[in-house]
Amino acid sequence: MRGACAAAVLLLSACAETGPGARQPVAFSTLAGWGPDEAARALPAFLEECRYLGRLPAEASLGTESGAGAHVGDWLPACQAAARLPADDGVAAQRFYETWFQPVLMSSSALFTGYYEPEIAGALSRGGVYQTPVYRVPDDLTRARATDGRMVSGHWQGGQFVPYWSRARIDAGALAGRNLELLWVADPADLFFLQIQGSGRVRLPSGQVVRLGFGGRNGQPYVPLGRVLVRQGAMSEDDVSMQSIRAWLTAHPGQARAVMEENPNYVFFTALNDVPAGQGAPGALGVPLEPGRSAAVDRRVIPLGTPVWVETRLPAPSRQVWQRLVYAQDIGTDIKGAARADLFLGWGAQAEQGAGAMRQPGRMIALTPRPVVTRP
């Protein structure tokens, strides 16, 4: 699960207006770029998702309390139908989607951002330049249901459930001496951006790569670092990007820690020992994230597992039209509402560059499962 979204590193609100006609059924013919080729390319990701859904109880919730797609069982008939499709048959794949799903316009003015798996330098033990710990989930960190029904993270103190230690308290040593260190990294900013992305890869001096996945969060609020730097006069709103923030932290090592501690939110990790190098880390649904096919959404309005049609453009310099089917397989701290999605772009330098620059408007349509008609 994502620690936060890439846009949250930036400055502005993560929410966008849903626009006129939002949450209304629309025809497949209105989806720009939809056709047999895209249906065929998108189908393997749906089949992979179905393998994970099939392991869950039919009554398991996928995020929303009610409505089409709210529970695992709502998707199983479509999964069974997809499994019977002939391979590499675009016409059959298109017919499948159009038979089993109803497109619903979520937003005509959605905001799309991107995220990725960073690779950073680290070591299994402390020493030399490796002085910043990457912590596993503490045993006293727990989750409880708030009065409004939300699940929140924190710990018990004096009979009260409160948020866990803040970033500043943890940086000051609140968790030291508890044998919670998974790894040690060379740059505190590396850890900060690893926490924003929610998963990543740590390359050891031997060349071995350790995969890390989201383990939990401390329950403290997320404060976008771009907003902090603009408020302090360090940069203008127009200059804020993931790359510009990272450059500022590198250029101001004496101030970097204090600025990062303005964001009290903190993410803990777990080691992913059996994830192949060519596969993304598991998202909130448990499905390995696939570059260009997985997205983080607000599961309170779009259930996990939902196919989502995206119409947008890639950022400059390419400005390429991006029209494709993705799957709601992840969530993020600042992904809120029916007009937001964070697109998983993969790993490596190109994915990092694209995720840092991605902040594009567009149209978002959810494909909800049609009711299964029982025939006598």
Task: Say how many strands there are.
Answer: 16
Overall pLDDT confidence: 91
What percentage of residues falls in helices of 4 or more residues?
Answer: 10-25%
Number of domains: 2
Q: Which runs of at least 5 residues are low in confidence (pLDDT < 50)? A: 7-15
Would you identify the CATH H-level superfamily of the largest domain? RlpA-like domain
Radius of gyration: 21 Å
- N-to-C span: 43 Å
The run of helices and strands is: HEHHHEEEEEEHEHEEHHHEEEEEHE
**What structural class do helix, strand and pairing data support?**
alpha+beta
Looking across the biggest beta sheet, what order are the strands in?
2-15-12-14-13-16
Please tell me the CATH architecture of the largest domain by its name: Beta Barrel
Cα shape? globular
Instruction: Return the CATH topology of the largest domain.
Output: Barwin-like endoglucanases
Count every helix, treating DSSP H or I runs of 4 or more residues as helices: 10
Largest sheet: 6 strands, mixed, barrel
CATH top level label of the largest domain: Mainly Beta
**Beta-strand share of residues:** 25-35%
Walkthrough of the structure:
This protein is an alpha+beta fold and 376 residues long. The protein folds into 2 domains: 6-115 and 286-369, Barwin-like endoglucanases; 117-272, Beta Barrel (Ribosomal Protein L25, Chain P). It has 10 helices and 16 strands. A 6-stranded mixed beta barrel has the order 2-15-12-14-13-16. The protein is globular. The model is unreliable at 7-15 (pLDDT under 50).
